[in-house]
Amino acid sequence: MSRHTHAKRIEGLDRNLWVVFAGMTSNPSIVSLAQGKPDIPPPSYVKEALAKAAAVDDLNQYTRGFGHPRLVKALSQVYGKVCGRQIDPFKEILVTVGAYGSLFNSMQGLVDEGDEVIIMEPYFDCYLPMVKMAGAKPVLIPLRVKSGKKPITSADWFLDPEELSSKFNSKTKAIILNTPNNPTGKVFTREELQTIADLCIKHDTLCISDEVYEWLVYKGRQHVKIATLPGMWERTITVSSGGKIFCATGWKIGWSIGPEHLIKHLQTITQNSTFMCATPLQEAMAESLLHNFELMDQPECFFTSFAEELKTKRDRLAAVLQEVGMTPIIPEGGFFMLVDVSSLNQDLSHTGDDGEAYDWKFVRWMIKEKKLASIPITNFVGDESKKMFEKYIRFCFFRKDSTLDAALDIFKNWNQS
Amino acid sequence: MNITRQVLNCCKVIYPSSFFNSRGRFCTSQSTRMSRHTNSKRIEGLNKNVWVVFTAMTSDPSIVNLGQGKPDIPPPSYVKEALAKAASVDDLNQYTRGFGHPLLVKALSQVYGKVCGRQIDPFKEILVTVGGYGSLFSTIQGLVDEGDEVIIIEPFFDCYLPMVKMAGAKPVLIPLRVKSGKKTLTGADWFLDPNELASKFSSKTKAIILNTPNNPIGKVFTREELQMIADLCIKHDTLCISDEVYEWLVYKGHQHIKIATLPGMWDRTITIGSGGKTFSVTGWKLGWSIGPEHLIKHLQTVMQNSLYTCPTPLQEALAQGLLHNFDLMGQPECYFSSLSVELEVKRDRLAAVLQEVGMTPIIPEGGYFMLVDVTSLNQDLSHMADNDEAYDWKFVRWMIKEKKLAAIPVTAFVGDESKKQFEKYIRFCFIKVNTKLSPKLRTLHFHPDLERFVCVCV
What we know:
Structural class of chain A: alpha/beta
Shape of chain B: globular
Number of helices of chain B: 14
Low-confidence stretches of chain A: none
Strand order of the largest sheet of chain B: 2-10-9-8-7-3-4
Oligomer: heterodimer
Mean pLDDT of chain B: 87
Number of helices of chain A: 14
Largest sheet of chain A: 7 strands, mixed
Strand content of chain B: 5-15%
Structural class of chain B: alpha/beta
Strand order of the largest sheet of chain A: 2-10-9-8-7-3-4
Strand content of chain A: 5-15%
Order of helices and strands of chain B: HHEHHEHEHEEEHEHEEHEHHHEEHEEHE
Shape of chain A: globular
Low-confidence stretches of chain B: 1-8, 10-33, 434-458
């Protein structure tokens, strides 16, 4: 018998929420507003760009390891404009396998065993295992609501400045920021970012800023890049995603942007893990970015038109949820909506596992009784914060109208069945 | 009190404490504060890369590049069409299953089930990765611990060494050797000394990395040689990571044997394949690991915590390409066999020309690289800068400069102790073509009076 088992670095990291969830929602009659997987197609010029690239022989062969030249130059143009600075396409940009890959490269390239990394709750679920895989310690801090107040919009969630400050120490290597935030939809204000920046500078901490939803910001709000605050460029890796920008999540093309002295270490990880990303997809991504760069600041620019389209969906869903008696927390950005289900007073004490958090029970009940799927939030928080979040579930409204209609019908008939 | 502390304390009297961050570093202002941030320990010393250096050396477009393994023959048209078709299907532009697109893992299960003569579970015994490279990474990260030893055969594909180091393990090198006194003529003349190999195994040996057909030598390990490796793996309870990306490119008279099919080996072997190499689409970066569930699951855990999933449209198109050829397996039209027929012609043509030039090619039994011994050219390179540089590096630099022809120096693929053994060898890649696509390429001749090589539809 072989004694072979897994390497220590992945101890305890095998559990996968999405595999569990796929099992729960495999029945095609279930309307799923769960996973952030759109059923809206990418713009046609995006699909055409890929088809066109496929036909060019050289674009099916190896390209530059750290990013296809045409793509990194396009990224340099777009983000150079957004950030108001010159960005070197070859030294300050790395193309990765989705933003997921950028997070991995950042962690593996910069975080050591014994380091601490601050993560805000609720968090995108991969942050925690990635920190652990690097042998570092996740230090959690929850977003909180002003006491006595029930949240109505994602702006009602905030980080307590003193609490945040207490999480920093000499071992803190980095803080992971996600704005617009998944799942709350919070868009951090300049003042809030300044609080974080001040602490990063004071403690010489890195900031890994996950901004994959950067273009999906709704009226009245503005996406601010922490890397543009004074003193932050040199200590921030800004991560984003082509898949999110262009409704092409299956392309898995993302990027890290930052100072050369940090990006080079992420490049070393690429060189020793995947070597490069797929050429035809990078070429098509470059085409799509350049197409929209020409249109930036105009209403036809997909970066803005798409946010308009999603806002309508957001508002439709929120209105119906309120009619049902749930309390949606209107997101300022992103395509997820947190919903407080406590006012439904759904008695679930007879269901499932006693130890299971309320939101898991609610989601299972809703899948079974209402044929509607959403995500339980306690999966995105540490044990100590589970009680604080167990009355919330997450809906994704990045769905075509017919899917939303089907979900809205379920809500309209909610109190009848 | 140490001197640093004394100085700092003295400074604190003069400057307010806000000028010191939590690590006691002195700074003049917030915006110019120096960061102490550097690379994580796991990548210490791993930033150098032969391809980055090489790309810089060959950036001049007038250089005929037979160095990097980048095909300039076109992929089969049905493969390109399959990608174009997938691009137009909305759902195929969205996330697919993390461990591998269902159509693809099922196609792999069919193809390799047939090749291996066993049922392969598409969901539990296969993982799709970002190229064969990504499979190597997932395997090493998923199974190799700090302090383990991993045996690597020289010359090796250059990523094996840094990947083993990044996992905190120790690479244990063993060179392929040539039968003494024999002038090497083919990949088969290189062998692993059985006693030497046995001596490399210890209780710390987690794995051995096998590459067959081998890059750069083109050796195709025989059943007997694989059995010798297998015996040691079983004796020492060692894993085998078998990089078989060139598995379909085996020339007449040779047969690719999968070590995983030897008795006792399925349970301890991860076999790696590459869609890019199989279909001449190196830019697609899709590969796979096949093995027993109890090992593959750990590679899947790495995938889940690193990249999550591979691109969907490429996986769909690759599945189509595999299924197309599965139906043709065993027939001459099957791309798995037709490509090697096409490449054998190029191999022989390049070998003949190199012999005319006065170099000594080692005819590969598989793969699309050819090792060439340049000793007989007696090229004097003592005038070249950097005396410490190995001869093959000097030769390649000279050849690029004087002959506008690029090849890869083989000492990039061996450890320090073996450099002397390999420094008269350079590596050529012959998956190159065709005047229609590269009008610069003309017949490869070497006339002593000509100032440069010109290269043709090889």
